[in-house]
Amino acid sequence: MPQEVSVSYQAVKSKVYRLVDALVVGEKSEAEVQESIRRWWELIHPADRPIAQKYLAMVLERSAMALDAVEGGLIEANQPEILRAPESNKTLKIIHRLSKHASLSSAV
């Protein structure tokens, strides 16, 4: 029987951050990160997937907000007179993708 993984918020956050770091430093490509997530998802027991998906959505949403804050801070530092509205569409897009993936996964 395959090994199952923890789906605590901290475990999900650690997985996502390790993959982001591996992509940033060039240890993994985008395709390798996607494959890693696919393999990780398969190790999660089907009964635990809704909570894993909830935590994943939270981590991705907060990460997107952090990236937007960094980008906004940089823009303000370079052009303080230009104020930029937050891009909540990115967050909504991520949540929509996760919901779509969940409905496809449950159909299989």
Helix % is: over 70%
Our estimate of the beta-strand percent is under 5%
Total number of helical segments?
Answer: 4
The whole-angstrom Rg is 16 Å
- The N- to C-terminal Cα distance equals 20 Å
Number of strands: 0
Mean of pLDDT? 84
Low-confidence segments, ≥5 residues, pLDDT <50?
none
Helix and strand pattern: HHHH
- Anisotropy-based shape: globular
Category from helices, strands and their pairing: mainly alpha
Largest sheet: none
What does it look like?
The chain is mainly α and 108 residues long. It contains four helices and no strands. 5% of the residues are buried. The model has no long low-confidence stretch (mean pLDDT 84).
Q: Outline of this structure?
A:
With 108 residues, the chain is mainly alpha-helical. It is built from 4 helices and no strands.
Which features characterize this protein?
4 helices; about 0% strand; about 110 residues; mainly alpha
Give the topology, please.
Blueprint: H1 9-24, H2 30-43, H3 49-78, H4 88-107
Helix pairs in contact: 1-3, 3-4
